[in-house]
Design a protein that fits this description.
Elements lengths: L1 H13 L2 E5 H4 E5 L10 E7 L8 E5 L9 E2 L2 E5 L4 E4 L3 E3 L3 E6 L6 H15 L10 H6 L1 E5 L8 H14 L21 E6 H4 L1 E4 L10 E7 L8 E5 L7 E2 L2 E5 L7 E4 L3 E3 L3 E5 L5 H12 L13 H6 L1 E6 L7 H19 L1
Helix pairs in contact: 3-5, 7-9
């Protein structure tokens, strides 16, 4: 492996690089905000400012909405600087930008070459200094060039292709076994009280001045970056959760996110959890729970009492119970399809 790395590093060192303004080399576009009530469960990935799962936090249907925009085969860049390659058709949330080379068909090899260069360019961005589309267009990026001093797309493609031959990927996606291929329209649905299915508990306030710098995600009511508002080191007098959903009860009222990691919850969000559920169940539940936010607003918050009394509609089995197996199978099937479309 060290020999391979040395060989590839030598190739990069010998290559000439030039600086380019992003808008001179790439087409730049941006997603848009859509009300929670309009996001229906479906099979189109919705890309947000999450650093997990390629930025995908849920799946939605195609919407007849002026702000519903779909793109494919491009590199997504969030306002916080997270960068991913999106080969298939996806929908972009507000402040998620996309770029693709002008007059050149992007492929996975070129995208993989570009991503570390873009990440180097965007690492300075954060909540306090966000990456807007106008700023992105004016950014400069160093790219390998050919004899005409143009971006050498051929070199980028062949470099990554050779690297793939010489190295084994760290993680191979294993297709999920699918035992249930029914669609959403083919199953029975019924309503359930939130309190009958989930544990519900609000987080605890930590004022800005009392937040200690650290590496624990602090989840609040922001609609960006999976709800993460800061990273803190507070461990005393806090409420910490993991492998659950949060719903914003103020601020971005009704926004729902899944958190596979340990985090500290602020008093602006309520955690929702059920023992035995996994990430596939929670991903399915995101759009279902978002519908609750339709009747609330900044002036009418979602209290824990109100939340427990809310009803949600879920697929049911022949016993009339929530069909957790179907929900898991549905999300796994969508992920299989996404993988097949991108390979």
């Amino acid at each position: 492996m060290m020999k391979v790395k040395k060989t590839m590093d030598n190739l990069l060192e010998k290559k000439k690089y030039n600086s380019f303004v992003i808008e001179d080399v790439f087409d730049v576009f941006t997603g848009a905000s859509i009300p929670v009530k309009d996001l229906l469960a479906g099979d189109i990935p919705r890309i947000t400012a999450s650093e997990f799962d390629n930025g995908i936090t849920h799946f939605t249907k195609h919407l007849e909405h002026k702000n519903f925009r779909t793109f494919e085969n491009f590199i997504s860049i969030s306002f916080l600087g997270q960068v991913f390659y999106q080969k298939g058709i996806v929908s972009l949330d507000m402040k998620i930008h996309g770029i693709k080379p002008k007059n050149k068909n992007l492929n996975s090899n070129i995208a993989l070459f570009l991503i570390p260069l873009i990440e180097k360019m965007t690492k300075k961005y954060s909540y306090g200094y966000q990456l807007s589309s106008n700023i992105l267009k004016k950014q400069k990026i160093m790219l390998p060039v050919n004899s005409l001093n143009e971006p050498d797309w051929k070199f980028m493609n062949s470099f990554v292709e050779e690297l793939k031959k010489e190295t084994k990927p760290k993680n191979n996606f294993i297709l999920h076994d699918i035992l249930d291929d029914r669609d959403l329209e083919e199953v029975e649905w019924d309503s359930f009280f939130i309190s009958d299915l989930f544990t519900v508990q609000r987080g605890k306030r930590i004022t800005k001045e009392n937040q200690i710098k650290g590496d624990i995600p602090y989840v609040s009511s922001t609609s960006f970056n999976n709800g993460v508002d800061n990273f803190i080191g507070n461990k005393e007098g806090v409420r910490m959760f993991d492998n659950c959903l949060t719903i914003a009860n103020s601020g971005s009222v009704g926004e729902v996110f899944y958190h596979p990691y340990k985090f500290v919850a602020s008093d602006h969000v309520t955690h929702i959890k059920r023992r035995g559920l996994n990430k596939y169940h929670y991903i399915f539940l995101i759009n279902v729970l978002r519908k609750i936010g339709d009747k609330y607003s900044f002036n009418r918050e979602i209290s824990d009492t109100r939340l427990r009394r809310e009803k949600i509609v879920l697929p049911v089995n022949n016993l009339g119970e929530p069909d957790w197996d179907f929900m898991e199978q549905y999300v796994k099937r969508v992920k299989n399809e996404l993988h097949n479309n991108s390979s």
